[in-house]
Predict the 3D structure of the following.
Amino acid sequence: MEQIGYAPPPPNLDAVFAALADPTRRAILSRLAQGDASVGELALPFKMSQPAVSKHLKVLEKAGLVQRGIDKQRRPARLNAEPMAAAIDWLETFRDFWSSSFDQLDDLLESLKKQTPEGDPP
Amino acid sequence: MEQIGYAPPPPNLDAVFAALADPTRRAILSRLAQGDASVGELALPFKMSQPAVSKHLKVLEKAGLVQRGIDKQRRPARLNAEPMAAAIDWLETFRDFWSSSFDQLDDLLESLKKQTPEGDPP
DNA sequence: TTGTTCCATAACCAGAAGGTAATATAAATA
DNA sequence: TATTTATATTACCTTCTGGTTATGGAACAA
């Protein structure tokens, strides 16, 4: 028995969000939250070919969301949620903006009477 | 002055995560966190054509992350972070899995000695 | 050894994504 | 009215994505 692919790369938000953008992959992650699963086990409930699932797993793996093991002929997948924390970290920087969504429309109407204001981007 | 596109659609995680998967779009969102901006203002710092930015804005709009206004010839974009909350909600369901990332490798090694366990998917 | 199970890989395809340049449109300005 | 400004739209191109079938290889089982 072995383990491959040590030292998962630092979370790449591009890859992480892209991986999460597919419903099949999110379902796979949810499934893996209940325990490791082989490719075959994952392929069953989704009416999809086995190679398709292998592809999805590879996308999840490159995003660091899944690690693979080796167990006889199987290559069990295990959830690695750390990149999700990175995604949340990024999203949290916007937290201020969804607490005050009340009079947001009023704000918009108001702000547009003046000219558009400040700001220099990345 | 007017406002268009009322009643933003309920957050679609597919669209939200896909929108977030592009670094230009994340940069646009960060920029908008500092204040509304017109298309031209957004296009400047990114060395990209104006139509490209318009496309990105449309993706963000469909994901509900941005609302557009009308101010004379301008169509200022405003951040709407609510869909981010939905994204976080989904991600938070995995929170258990990134607190215990210590001996995760050991866990993996251990679990693979037995057969793969339980679980029935979506 | 032979077959079977589990998975990966290759080749292929249609459609979506991300970019461009060129053009059209709408509102402000001269 | 003519021009300029701000944005959208169109047409086009290339690359990526998500799926397929077919095939190959490794490990177990008979």
User: Anything to note?
Assistant: Confidence is low (pLDDT under 50) at residues 1-5, 109-122 of chain B.
